[in-house]
Amino acid sequence: MEQRYLEIDEWKIIEEGWDSNNHMKSESIFSIGNGRMGQRANFEEAYSGDTLQGSYIAGVYYPDKTKVGWWKNGYPEYFAKVLNSVNWIGIDIEIAEQSLDLAQVKVSNFRRELDMQHGLLSRSFSAEFADGKKVKVETQRFLSLVKDEVGAISYSITPLNFDGKVIIKPYLDFDVENHDANWEEKFWAPVDEKVAAQKGTVTAKTKKLDFHVSAAMRFEVFAQGEHVTLYPETEQREKYVANSVELQMEQGKTYTICKYAGITSSMNYAVEKLSTTADERASQAMRTGYDKLLEEHKAAWLEKWSTSDIVIEGDAAAQQAIRFNIFHLFQTFTGVDPRLNIGPKGFTGEKYGGSTYWDTEAYCLPFYLSTTQQEVSRNLLIYRYKHLGKAIENAQKLGFKNGAALYPMVTMNGEECHNEWEITFEEIHRNGAIAYAIFNYVRHTLDRDYLADYGFEVLLGISRFWAQRVNWSEAKGKYVMLGVTGPNEYENNVNNNYYTNKMASWTMSYTLTVVDYLKENHADRYAELVKKTNFDEKAEMEEWADIISNLHIPIDEERQVLLQQDGFLDKDLRSADSLDASERPINQHWSWDRILRSCFIKQADVLQGLYFFEHQYDKATIRRNFDFYEPMTVHESSLSPCVHVILASRIGYGEKAYELYLRTARLDLDDYNREVHEGLHITSMAGTWMSVVQGFGGMKIIKEKLHFEPLLPENWDSLNFTLRWREAVLNVSIDKKNLTVENTSESTAEFVFGPHTNQLKGGKKIVLPLAP
Amino acid sequence: MEQRYLEIDEWKIIEEGWDSNNHMKSESIFSIGNGRMGQRANFEEAYSGDTLQGSYIAGVYYPDKTKVGWWKNGYPEYFAKVLNSVNWIGIDIEIAEQSLDLAQVKVSNFRRELDMQHGLLSRSFSAEFADGKKVKVETQRFLSLVKDEVGAISYSITPLNFDGKVIIKPYLDFDVENHDANWEEKFWAPVDEKVAAQKGTVTAKTKKLDFHVSAAMRFEVFAQGEHVTLYPETEQREKYVANSVELQMEQGKTYTICKYAGITSSMNYAVEKLSTTADERASQAMRTGYDKLLEEHKAAWLEKWSTSDIVIEGDAAAQQAIRFNIFHLFQTFTGVDPRLNIGPKGFTGEKYGGSTYWDTEAYCLPFYLSTTQQEVSRNLLIYRYKHLGKAIENAQKLGFKNGAALYPMVTMNGEECHNEWEITFEEIHRNGAIAYAIFNYVRHTLDRDYLADYGFEVLLGISRFWAQRVNWSEAKGKYVMLGVTGPNEYENNVNNNYYTNKMASWTMSYTLTVVDYLKENHADRYAELVKKTNFDEKAEMEEWADIISNLHIPIDEERQVLLQQDGFLDKDLRSADSLDASERPINQHWSWDRILRSCFIKQADVLQGLYFFEHQYDKATIRRNFDFYEPMTVHESSLSPCVHVILASRIGYGEKAYELYLRTARLDLDDYNREVHEGLHITSMAGTWMSVVQGFGGMKIIKEKLHFEPLLPENWDSLNFTLRWREAVLNVSIDKKNLTVENTSESTAEFVFGPHTNQLKGGKKIVLPLAP
To answer: Which of A264, A758, B222, B514 would staple A278 via disulfide (CB 3.0–4.6 Å)?
Structure first.
């Protein structure tokens, strides 16, 4: 863990004092976003020190030509990269021919603050130039949660010891590049620039795929709160427009520029309307005015928090961290657009390129299911529904037939982007997570119509894939699934990974029940679907039933644990404690073959299955498997600890659960892995939420009923979280003595605690003593 | 198979008629080499059509920065590339301001011929220019087998229908590039150019590693055989020197330029002497004269053939092919320098970069053992001895200790060049081939001193590797070897590959016997070695013995066949015949995961073990395993069929053996895989030799005795081959009736045929009837 340089505060992230070494980390941590776009906490003014300029627009990507050492048949041609886009925040400041640049001036009283409650980034500092001139600067900015194509900046300058000329130059710059480009090329080609007094637009398009993006700016200047009439000079070059405003400033007075940006993309508008629409957004924003824009933005954030906040008493660092996580998840994905998804780094960095991994279904969906309207989660599911055709094509490319679907490991538009055979072709359990997400959504929402409208087709494609992916082993007299990589990527190309086999047989089995449900409840739609998908009901269902009954599930008879894969017991079984500190993390110190043949587990694998199917296993089974696998798990993925926290909580291993929770709780805030400068671990933030709510809070769904089985960490006084549960909103408090559930909505809710099912009417609260 | 465009001839490769589509193939096929350098059959004069200019100097390579998609810990930083080097053959011809360029003139009577008996490339054609002028051209060239830094060219022009000015411009050009460069950079930096009348030198160095190479040229011109006094103009630029000679030619007279090149490298000379030495070589060659140089070169080739020729009666295509293979093997490696080795494409192309694979030990060594002096094979072994230190470092990098050695999969200087984890880290059986080569060498030559001088250290390093690479499986109560790739690269990361486990236990067991031998016969040297290697005799030998006795060897009890790996029987076991023609080769039509989980075998794996250890298995075992594995083998490696041919011959499957033999016999001459333009398959040529001599000829060594167990293909009248066997040279003939062995040397030889051991004195011949 790096030295902690940020203040602990319940609702804010605060950086006090200027240290350029922390800047790139802060650029990630203080990122803002509104689901439609995101912006790293780069400075508005010029900065010649180390920086990762980053402005991202959801869904706009670039197919970067694949880089590979040894090509394998079936590899994709490109890797979809999250695309660094127009710099809309830029405001150059020049004082007596000196550029304001924090790498060049003497900085004092630097403070950067991210107000998570209201979604507002602010910064203040004093700067002393070489010639002794001093200014005070105060800035604020946000990306409107209400008008999601608008960003607004308030940038104030106060000369502290001089009167004189100050040049303020707001600009838009599209001459940006991705640091992670495979072949060091720029991805944007210029289309058009327009500039006039107090406004400008710039449009560019991606060199492949023809995404067009327009950015427009408007701005106004105030002196001590009074509008200033401006006579700006305009500037224009390829991919760049600017206005240059000369102000005669007086010592002690404050001059504020409010810059409004409108950003539009060809995902939402015809190319010919892009630039004018962007300008409309910016000019509407200016007409509305900074304060009013900010007000409605703040209100929208408070609304989000009202159904999602978590309060931890007795641990301020944990309190800050969990809000940080919730905040960034909402900044990344708001659920209004089913073409969008959740990239591992959200809008905070470039790494990992393509945006969607199975993280979405396995880790993020539970968060959105519990904290947002049903529609948000439904859009996450529809995202995959829209990609079904590509998933079928992908499976065809790998030799599968008859509508079998294999969803990609990493994707933007439904096509596979990854190119390591052991992952791309073999980490097929991702398909299972997509099927499970449908089940999870339906048991949460009871929106069974979803199955008829969309769900069945996806389940069918995936079940068909599993049915073709297994083969009959004469030797075992069982179906087997050869050559897979499970969630534990520290084993590759193994046979009969329990988790994958379980996901396969469960998917087929769930699809069977869905067929029965559709036949009974949606007969017409079902008939349509059968036709559309060429579903050979009898033959296919019989085949699935046969596979379900005869699929090999590896078990250690002696220990009575599920086996990660057929060969697992041949390994040298050791506890991770036996590793020397100098060898960890093993992925940085061991060669790959050594990792592969070791027993060490990167992230929950068998335990991931027990988490998903907790309702099918008793606690003794969970405990036996946890006791066997946890000691061998090295948790070298940020996604790893959460599942262990939840299971440990379930079997009463409170201390272990808390120890594991600490590994991710402040992963980014405390930069455990020294990689925060590259961006935040957005999807693992959802894992931390799961740890708190499903682990310590003990929230779970069994047979479509909500359960609580809490286990409060020793050093927390209390835990309080808010949940949406179907029509209701529940505020749940756990302290040392009681579980208190308050229904803050008008709808009745039901939940199970211990042996009892509780009905809780709207506006009511119930206090239940925890078992001793 | 491509349409055959080459003539069948016993000793020659002949191309009649000009078709530019065949040129790049011919450039490979007609390549010349002398072990020290090699040259593709590029034209001397300018050629603007498709060509792969290729001139290679043994041992001079370039560490090209590794290209990889997903870096794995332990990958090497670079891939050593065989380096395209100075173009020394160039002679530009200009007639009335028209360049002689076969892509621009009308060509008739084109003939290209490679005389394999004498190592001579020649070419003749007539060219008609746009202005109607016609010339006849006749060229010859060779790389001297006697003076291995010298190349010589005779280039004759006869004006057919005009008198006039012809400009002849011999040059040296170092501005060359590798087509397979990872990052499209040129590898050579200029050092120095010198030019004067009738001579020139150019020196360049590699941008990394500082290899320096100098080329010098001298030339003389004859008119109708009479020396012409020349007044050339000189030309010089970076990496290039030339002489321009203007000749007034008369119709019907023949003008010949003899160009002599000397090429030296910093592997053999101090950099400051490089250029002068090269010039000395060239000027000595000119003093000697073309005809005399050629004469001694031819004699050297005849000498090589005297102990290695194979005569096949009744099959002219097979006759040509086997000589083609022997010829290219000798062109690639002559065995005079233990720093050199045999690249998969020799000096005929660039692909596969680094020069040494396990091909050398497994396929090439048997050829050189049987056809050349002992020293040649010994040098191949010493090559690996010299790399032992790097092999130990390589193993350390992967976590091994105490002098364990892992030889690289691909190398130039002993360092690993390959970067695919499943090969680099897991295809460790290569280590076994290097140990086996020592055993093979000793049983051939009885040079047991080699064990004391070099062999033991290598065996110790490899045995130590195996001992650390296995682990104890509690579940099996056996040692196991997890996570390997066997010779069949269509399975990756498997457990207990029979071949690898067998090689491991055999290596340890052989090392134990070598220790005993050394203790008894080389006590002092042994004591020295124990000290040098920190050999803990008792503990290490006990550990090996324990592993040998308890190493898991997978067997199918029911079928009584050895298993390729633990999970093999879980596969869908099908015959390759069941594949549709459109799916083959599967490596071009199937995705990698599908190949991996299929039962299809790229090349001999279990059968490779049965070939190496034929003396340990009875014929029934060989037959059972052959019957099981051959039908699943797709032979998608040029190295595959030979082992199957040998085993099929041994178990009396004559038809099968011949069918398999046909797959490689004319692989390059008939361009089966449409890739000959990239270079020839040099190492698999040794496999074809093995097929003929060890397969049909039935030559084998059991307990240090020479055996013959021939099985002549039905459509061959007879097979005759010459072998060195220790001090003797044996000429072996097999026809439909008899095995005839003639001892053409002065030393007595012994061989076993059927139940009888035959003593054959020098100069004697014995005729033994084949069993009915």
So the answer is: A264
Tell me, what's the pLDDT at B153? 98
Share of chain B above pLDDT 70, in %: 99
CB contact under 8 A, B571 and A471: yes
Q: Going by C-beta distance under 8 Å and a sequence separation of 6 or more, which residues neighbour residue B190?
A: B174, B204, B238, B239
Choosing from A44, A361, A415, A489, which is the catalytic residue? A489
Tell me the pLDDT of chain B averaged across its residues.
96
Quick one: pLDDT band at residue A423, thresholds 50, 70, 90? very high
A-chain residues within 8 Å CB-CB of B475? 569-570
Q: CB distance A67–B69 less than 8 Å?
A: yes
Interface test with B, best of A474, A592, A594, A599 (most B CBs within 10 A): A592
Contact B564, B599 (CB under 8 A): no
Phi, psi angles (nearest 5°) of residue A44: -70, -45
**B471 CA to chain A: closest CA distance, Å?**
7
Chain A residues with CB-CB distance to B398 below 8 A? 591, 593-594
Please name the helix (run of DSSP H) or strand (run of DSSP E) that holds residue A751, with its range, or none.
strand A749-753
Q: Which candidate from A66, A483, A570 shows the least CB-CB separation from B482?
A: A570
Q: Give the confidence band of B186 by pLDDT, cuts at 50, 70, 90.
A: confident
- The pLDDT tens digits for A275-333 are 999 999 999 999 999 999 999 999 999 999 999 999 999 999 999 999 999 999 999 99
At A593, list the tokens: 């073959």
Would the pLDDT of B16 be above 70? Answer: yes
Other beta carbons less than 10 A from residue A701's beta carbon: 20
pLDDT at A2 over 60: no
Per-residue pLDDT reduced to its tens digit, A506-545: 999 999 999 999 999 999 999 999 999 999 999 999 999 9
Locate the chain A residue with the closest alpha carbon to B78: A69
Phi, psi of A14 (to 5 degrees): -130, 130
Q: What is the ipTM of this complex?
A: 0.92
Pick from B573, B557, B657: nearest CA to B607: B657
pLDDT of residue B772: 62
Q: What's the mean per-residue pLDDT of chain A?
A: 96
Say if CB B481 and CB B496 are below 8 A apart.
Answer: yes
Chain A from 330 to 349: CB within 8 A of any B CB: none
A352 close to B (CB below 8 A): no
> Crossing angle, helix B290-306 and helix B271-288, to 10 degrees?
100
Across the interface, whether the CB atoms of A425 and B588 are under 8 A apart is answered no
B419 interaction partners in chain A (CB closer than 8 Å):
69-70
How far apart are the CA of B416 and the nearest CA of chain A, in angstroms?
14
The length of chain B in residues reads 772
| Residue numbers in B near A393 (CB within 8 A) | none
Residue A564 CA to residue A607 CA, distance in Å, equals 9
- Would you tell me which residues 561-580 of chain A have a C-beta closer than 8 angstroms to some C-beta of chain B? 566-567, 569-573
Q: What is the pLDDT of residue A300?
A: 98
B465 within 8 A of B431, measured Cβ to Cβ: yes
Cβ–Cβ contact A483 with B under 8 A: yes
* Residue B771 confidence (pLDDT): 75
Strand partners, A260: A152, A218
Please check whether residue A206 is in contact with residue A62, taking contact to mean a CB–CB distance below 8 angstroms. yes
- Strand duo B749-753 + B705-708: pairing: parallel
Out of A426, A566, A593, closest to residue B426 by CB: A593
- Nearest residue on chain A to B68, alpha-carbon basis: A69
> Is A489 a catalytic site residue?
yes
Helix, strand, or coil (residue B293): helix
CA distances from residue A132 to A135, A158, A190, A633, B305 in whole angstroms, order as listed: 10, 15, 41, 58, 90
Task: Give the dihedral of Cα atoms A318, A323, A325, A326; nearest 10 deg.
Answer: 140
